Each structure stands twice: as structure tokens, then as C-alpha cells.
Amino acid sequence: MEPIQLPDAAALGPALVLAATALVVFGLDSLRPHEPDRGLLAGTTAGGALAALGVGVWFMIAGVGVPEPDGLGAIGLFDDQLVVDQLALFFMLVTAIVTALVAVASYDYMDGHAHQGEYYSLVLLAATGMATMAAANSLVTVFLALELASLPSYALVAILKDNRGSVEAGLKYFLLGALASAIFVYGISLIYGATGVLQLDLVADAIAGETGQNPLTGADHDVSGHDGLLGVGIVLLIAGIAFKTASVPLHFWAPEAYEGAPAPIAAFLSSASKAAGFVVAFRVFVTAFPVEATAGIVGFDWSLAFAVLAVLTMTIGNFAAAVQENVKRMLAYSSIGHAGYALIGLAGVGTSAESLVLGAAFMHLFVYAFMNTGAFTFVALAEYWGVGRTFADYNGLGRRAPIASVALTAFMFSLAGVPPLGGFFSKYFLFTGAIDAGLLVVAGALVINSALSLYYYSRLVKAVWFEEPMTDRGSLAQPVGLYAAILAAAVMTVAVLPGFGPIAESAIDAASAILA
Length: 516
What we know:
Layout: H1 13-31, H2 38-62, E1 75-77, E2 82-84, H3 86-109, H4 116-135, H5 139-157, H6 164-195, H7 200-209, E3 211-213, E4 220-222, H8 227-244, H9 253-260, H10 263-288, H11 291-298, H12 302-322, H13 327-347, H14 354-385, H15 397-400, H16 402-416, H17 422-436, H18 440-465, H19 480-495, H20 500-515
Antiparallel strand pairs: 1-2, 3-4
Subcellular location: Membrane
Membrane topology: Multi-pass membrane protein
Pfam family, one: Proton_antipo_M
């Protein structure tokens, strides 16, 4: 009997499963709109995310995205407007993992809040957009997927309607996000005007051959004659991606949004959404804009621009985090610093070590998903207990909640890059890759900023374990969902140590495939 042949559209399985789960959650909520079953909604959301994870792993094992004859090769959909390859599957897995952890943590955190069904449906819809962003292979599909991820995110930040901080953060996030989207789509229009195409590989062909087609008449025209148009379009794309990844100079929305949002949503935005923004940056710039050919036309090297952004982003993020007294804002600025680390991957494109540097950025985003989600989930647990938001409010929590505090310690030291935790290995590969690529200033900035980050991460560990509590809190509840999410993130943060070899191999393979 011949094996069952799946349609090509099945390659979008992780995104389709997330979208279908969102519709199921909508249906379940409509059956009991006034008495939502929190366990059923959270369980369905987490189950759908885990199912999407399983589908993604299945496709990776089957060899989707691995070049023939060893694998099935990349699968193009809708005339290659979407492409499912190793890069897409790698980041679909990151999105699914974070979504599952956020759903489990939200079971307790959202207890007593209204709009339960809407909350979980919006999480799944945002995750669907992020998974689609990973497969987008055209500037149009990139923009559509970006908006599918962004619009639910705006609502999620403002979901606590009785909390003024949440509503204010949601409004600011929406207004700045709308501005960033306008900048991004304007950049797309300029690139279309210069090249006459929107598909990423066709944009690269037009730039490399210095010929294209007029988008209105279809007649051939010289791309080099539109160097100014193309250059401005690329700059605007960089600005739009800088906003989505919370990179300097468009980083200022992140502390406000993360502080006002529910803590699980802050984890979702700073982990899954950031990873989705970076996968768009990786695919768009590596595929559409060959470094040498683009520099020859527009007169500047975009990889150098990302090197400058990497140094500025990690430095400003870490120095701002070091002076914060609010734990949530500290983690927000820390997230900006980690965006700077991931930008090293783009800074290394076009060098002899580009596969290693880009793969190291993938590794870092993968490990970061666990340790950062776990850190924000601990903040959610503290908010559940009614603990304040400053470092001093966390004093002595280690004596009342030792298990969760041990997990927090692992998250903090892994974020700082302390060996032998996962964050150390991903930063080590970034450092060695930057050295091999000749990015000595960037490598030095990575080391200095990692050392600085140890200061403010250690402040939180010191407060939890060694400082005397300001008040007698008595016994603390142990909510099942929040503890389960924290422990799962902690286990994965530690479990990546023996499994870092396969993670590194998959990341470098994904980088090599997109660079080929």
C-alpha cells in the first residue's frame, strides 16, 4: 500500500492548528458566555499549542526544508508567497512552546478577570500570525502576517479593562504600532517601485541583475536608476523591524507595554513576538538584499547598520535595566538588551562566518524563549500573591516559595550568561561567531554588556534569597498553573544543556539553508 500523500498546504500545519484551536476556543466560550470554564479554555489553548509543536517536530523529523536528496526540501505555497523550510519550522516551534507556557500560566493569573474566551482566542490568533511570519516569503505576506500578530497583541496588552495601567499601555502600544506599520508598508511600496516585485528571491534577482520590471507598465527598467528609492525603502524596513523587535531607537514602547500588560502577555510579547520579528528580519534581509549587490546600488552596507544597532541596543538596554527599581521594567529593558544580542546574527551576514553567527542568533532566541518566559511567569506569580513591583517587595520570597525561587535563580543566571546554563552557550556561540566574522567591537560589547547584566540579575536573586522581607507575608498560595509553567520553563532551561548539540546543529542547518 502506498503511503498517504499530504497536500502541500499541510506544511503550514503548526499555524493551521493554532488557528483551528482559536476557533474552537471561540466556540467553547460562546456555549457558556457568562460562566466560562477556565480550565477548559486554558487546557484547550495549551493542548492546541502542544499539538502545533508536535506537528512542527514531525515535519522537521520528516526532512521538510532539508535539501534533497537527504530531505524533502522546502515547500512553497501560493506561488512561493509562503515557504516552509528549516527556518520556518524552527521558529514555529518557539512560538508553540511559548504559547503553551503562557496558556498554562494564565489559568491562575486570569482567575476572576472577565473576557476569558476572548483572552485565549487572542493569544492563539497572535500565535498564528507569528507562526505565519516565520514562513512569509513575500513583502506582502510578511506585512499581513505581521498585522495578524500585532492586532491581537494590542488588545491583549489592554485586556485588564479595570486596570488603568493596562489600558494606557495598550493605547500607547497601538498608536506606536500603527505608526511603525505605516513606516514598514511605506518601505515596502518604495522597494516595489524600485524593483517591480515583492517576492523576496525575486527582489534579490532584480538587485543582483540590476534590472527589473516597471510595476505599472511591465517594461524592463534599471534598478540602479532607482538607488535612492531602494535605499530609503531598506531604511524604512529596518525601522519597522526595529520596532517589532524592540531595538534601538524604536525600543521605547516595550517598557510601557510590558509593565502595563498582564505578566503572561509580557512574557508572550518579549519571547514569541520578538522571535517572530527576528525571523522576519532574517528572512527578508538575507534573502531579498544580497549584501554586496545591495551595497553597490544603494551605497551602504545594511549588515554594518545592524552591527551598529546591535551595539547600541544591547548597551542602552542593559544600562537602562541596571538603574531600574521596578522588576517588570528591569525585565523589559533586559529584553531590549537581548534584542541587541540577536542582532549580531544580521551583523555577521556577508562574512566568512555568516552561518555560525546567524545560527548562534537562532540558538539564543530559542534558549531565550524559556528563560525569559519563566522570568516573567515568576513576576506573574508574585502579582498573583499581591507582592509589589519593586526589588524590595521581592525580599525574602525564597523562604516562602523556595521551589519557584530556585527556578527564578536559574532564569536570572541563564539570562546573564553564567556557565553552564543555556544562556551561556548561546552567548558563547555568538561571541565566537562575531570574532570569526571580524566583528571585534560587537564581540567586546557582548562581553561587557553580559557582565553588566549579571549585576542587575543578581540584585533580584539577592533580594529573593538574602534580604529581609519588608512585611510578614504569612503563607503563600501555590497556584497549580503558574507553578507548572515556571517549573516547565526551568526544566527546559536546564535540559537544553545536554541537548544543546542537536539545538546548535538544527540552528546552523536552518541558517545554512537560508544563506544558500
